[in-house]
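pinging the channel bc i need a second pair of eyes. not urgent but kinda urgent?? the chain im working w is below, pasted from the shared doc
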Amino acid sequence: MGKLLIVDDDLSNSRVLEMRLESEGYHAEVASENEATKDLAARNEYELAIFNLRLHVLGYISKGNWTGSSIIRHIINAHGGRI
């Protein structure tokens, strides 16, 4: 099944979701910090990324520098314009 990225500053929530998704046959990776998230998104292709909408660890979002669409653009650009 597909590869998923889970981004949340609450690691326990992320791990529960990761275990649940993996029990259904998905491969899930967890990131909780800004640099780790950007690094994973740049190095891997995911079918789905699940973000905590109130994420504070990705300070860019809470400071208004990143929007949902800019995160998507970052992921697309990291893969040379293809997903």
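so The chain has four helices and three strands. and The longest helix spans residues 11-23. — does that match what u expected or am i reading it wrong
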